[in-house]
Amino acid sequence: MDYRLAREKMVKNQLIARGIQDARVLQAMGKIPRDRFVQEALVSEAYNDYPLPIGHGQTISQPYIVAMMTEALELKGDENVLEIGTGSGYQTAILAELSRWVYTVERIRPLMENAKRVLTELGHKNIFFKAFDGTLGWKEYEPYDAIIVAAGAPKIPQPLLDQLAEGGRLVIPLGNRYSQELVQITRKNGQFVEKGLGGCRFVDLIGIHGWQDSIKES
Ligand code: SAH
Q1: Whether pTM exceeds 0.85
Q2: How many domains does the chain have?
């Protein structure tokens, strides 16, 4: 089935209508087949205006949230991007369209393996995967021009600030377990400048520099 029309509608009604302006972001979201990143039983809902379960208690983010976070990374095409929370791999595909290299970290190995399979099938060749605690970042390939965290954190993990390049942008949901604010942090002359982008609700960022109490439970 061809979901091109569903994608066009999604871009128009959910993204442009709500103020997403970056033409490259709109183009990428009009191109990437979101239907390939959801469970078979939910394919008919793939382009709807809400998150969907992807197993292991996790979700694929709502299209608008993916667009807003990606826009806030201000990608031009030649960046090294670090993504924490691969999940379904949908956001990863959007990042891979818009930057040079994507380094993506996921703590739940089966999710990482599944995302890797789908992204490989779709022909993406500029993505590196790691099953690990992403609150520690990915030291080997730092610094990153852009870092995106797709899970809610109580505070900004220090390793991510350390691994952000001068001039780089970090986008992360910060708050308690029930609601967060999306925050864009820009590293300017060695300082970190914060800007709020609005309220949101994400699953927990579980790790040494995230919600530590859940590390053992899941
Ligand atoms: N952008 C993804 C969002 C997935 S939900 C998508 O749209 O599909 C967030 C993901 O973050 C979950 O898969 C969860 O397992 C992962 N996660 C939570 N804490 C993490 C950590 N410390 N390191 C890496 N991944 C983490």
Answers
A1: yes
A2: 1
206 occurs within a structural domain:
no
Q: Which tens digits make up the pLDDT trace of 37-47? A: 999 999 999 99
Structural domain boundaries, residue 138: 51-200
Would residue 31 count as lying in a domain? Answer: no
Cβ atoms of 93 and 32 within 8 Å: the answer is: yes
Reduced to 3 states (helix: H, G, I; strand: E, B; else coil), residue 179 is coil
Give residue-wise pLDDT tens across range 37-90: 999 999 999 999 999 999 999 999 999 999 999 999 999 999 999 999 999 999
Overall average pLDDT of the 162-185 stretch: 97
User: Which atom of ligand 1 is nearest to 111's Cα?
Assistant: 13
CATH number where 105 lies: 3.40.50.150
Q: Is 150 in the pocket of ligand 1 (CB under 6 A)?
A: yes
How many A from CA of 105 to the centre of ligand 1? Answer: 8
Atom of ligand 1 nearest to the CA of 37: 8
Strand partners, 195: 184
Q: How far is the CA of 67 from the centre of ligand 1 (A)?
A: 17
Q: How far apart are CA 113 and CA 56, in angstroms?
A: 13
Question: Which pLDDT score is estimated for 215?
Answer: 74
Query: Is residue 133 lining ligand 1, measured as CB closer than 6 Å?
Result: yes
8 within domain boundaries: no
Quick check: is 40 in a domain?
no
Bin 31: left if φ > 0, else alpha if -120 < ψ < 50, else beta.
alpha
Known catalytic residue at 214: no
Atom 7 of ligand 1, nearest CA residue: 60
* Kind of pairing between the strands at 180-188 and 191-200: antiparallel
Determine if ligand 1 sits within 6 Å of the CB of residue 134: yes
